[in-house]
Design a protein that fits this description.
The chain has five helices and six strands; from the N terminus they run H-E-E-H-E-H-H-H-E-E-E. The protein has about 160 residues and is α/β, with parallel strands linked by helices.
Length: about 160
């Protein structure tokens, strides 16, 4: 009986080796931006510093998932950009050193801080956990990615 009680009281943890559940990442811009969709290739270009301006000539500045979720930063870099974090930041040091682009992506402390930055400026494009988006937030726009909306089953920005 004591063993059964002990087993029932033990915390439930996922089995080792099981991949984490996919997390949907929302791509958010200021509500005044005309864009409604972004491709994964365009996200790569923006976050690698290869695309510095929107189509209308406005500067664009990438904002990574918030620092409070470092595992999402790593997953986004690896799965969407194809680089582990150390290579990503080495790439950016090279960009800055060569004078290619000195506006390396930001990573703010929290999702609310990230969303405030996007709300206040037409420049940022941010990647945040979709589950952290406030309902009915005015002044922000969630972009489709590759023609897929955040709630589509085959939405491409699901990281695990």
């Amino acid at each position: 009986m004591a063993l059964v009680a002990l087993l029932l009281a033990a915390p439930v943890t996922p089995r080792r080796g099981r991949p984490p559940s996919p997390v949907r990442l929302a791509v958010v811009v200021n509500g005044e931006r005309p864009e409604t969709d972004v491709s994964v290739a365009q996200l790569r270009r923006i976050f690698l510093g290869e695309q510095r301006f929107w189509g209308d000539g406005t500067p664009v500045h990438g904002v990574l998932p918030p620092q409070e979720r470092p595992e999402l930063v790593e997953r986004f870099l690896r799965q969407t950009l194809g680089l582990p974090p150390d290579e990503y930041w080495r790439h950016w040091r090279g960009n800055v050193f060569r004078g290619v682009n000195n506006r390396k992506p930001l990573s703010l402390a929290t999702t609310p801080a990230t969303l405030r930055a996007v709300f206040r400026s037409r420049i940022p494009i941010a990647v945040v956990p979709a589950a952290d988006l406030p309902a009915g937030e005015r002044g922000l726009k969630v972009l489709a990615v590759g023609g897929k909306r955040i709630d589509d089953p085959d939405y491409p920005l699901q990281v695990n």
